[in-house]
Each structure stands twice: as structure tokens, then as C-alpha cells.
Amino acid sequence: MELNGIDSFDADITYANGGFYKNLPQPKMKFDIDPQTEDTVQASSVDLPVEDGSLSSVVFDPPFLTYVKSGRNGNGNMVMAKRFGGYWAYNELEEHYKDTLKECARVLNKKGIMVFKCQDIIHNHRMHSTHINVSNWMQPWFRLKDLFILGAKHRMSIPDKQGEKKRKQKHARVYHSYFMVLERL
Predict the structure, then answer these.
(1) Residue-by-residue pLDDT tens, the chain, 185 positions
(2) How many whole angstroms separate alpha carbon 139 and alpha carbon 174?
(3) CATH superfamily of domain region 11-64+91-155+169-184
(4) Of 107, 128, 125, 114, which is closest to residue 55 (Cα–Cα)?
């Protein structure tokens, strides 16, 4: 597989367990705030142990869930909190994404590629078009070079709580994510 001239990525800055690479070449460097493999370096995507302008490609596949965060009252035992990282509020997600864009602008060379995976979400009954926000936040460091829309393999529904009245759907369910290919200016 080749994506915009990339056979394999220099770094994955949110590597997790490497599930993204099931049928792809492994990245040269693996970073994660909570390493799940022995060859992954513990580092935050906002503070990478990499020299300025030393990379030509990175992958960022961050958490995108809100109201889900291990250690928060009422959420630590949720299946989603155990399986994925997340944020309590959209502003936490926003801060992390903005800071990561700035850090990747630092570590990527000119014309370097950042693959940024994100998902639009509903938080506090408000739609957040995260892919549009990322397009705005990436300026002045990046331009959007390519965009893929990925359908979900599994749909996560919100079950009714026992004894509750049937809930009415207020927003469209988001069953897709965006695979944004950004080029360093």
C-alpha cells in the first residue's frame, strides 16, 4: 500500500496496540502516552522526543470520545473507558488536537505528511464537526492534501437504561471517521 508517496510511516504518535497496522508495514518509531507494546516509547503526542524537522511522515489516530475517561466518577468501569482513551469534555479534545498539530509542525520537515484521523461527535447535545475544526486549527502549518471518509465496522449504540422511558434520537448517529492527509507547509 502506498498513500501519497508513503510506503511506511516514520512515526505513529498514538500507536496503542498497533491494530492500525494489521496489513501494513510497521512505522519506524512508535509512541504512545500509555504504551501497550514493548517497542513503543512512552511519550505524549504534544511533546515528542524527536528533533525539529526530522520526520517526513506521522500518523495521529487519537481518542475521539467524550464523556469517557478512565478515573472519572461514573466512567472508570465503562467498557469504552477501558478499551479507549478519551476526554471528559470537548475542550479537552480540542486542546489535545491543537497542541498535537503544533508539535507535528515542529517535528515534520517541509512537505512532510501528517495523517490525522478524527470523528465528528455529539457532546452536550451539540454537534462538533471535528474534521472542519482540524482544517481550521492546522493553519498556518499545514494544508489539506487528501481526505478519506471511513465507515465504521461496528456501530456503537446507546442502550436504554433499565426502567427509563424509551429515548428519542435527537441527532444523527455518526458512524464514520475522517482520515485527513495534511502536508507541512
Answers:
(1) 556 678 899 999 999 889 888 888 999 999 998 899 999 999 999 999 999 999 999 999 987 664 444 444 544 454 444 445 566 678 888 999 999 999 999 999 999 999 999 988 776 777 778 899 999 999 999 999 999 998 866 555 555 555 555 556 555 566 778 999 999 99
(2) 26
(3) Vaccinia Virus protein VP39 (3.40.50.150)
(4) 107
pTM of the model: 0.80
Helix axes 130-137, 90-107, angle to 10 degrees: 40
Look up residue 45 and give its amino acid. S
47 residue type, one letter: D
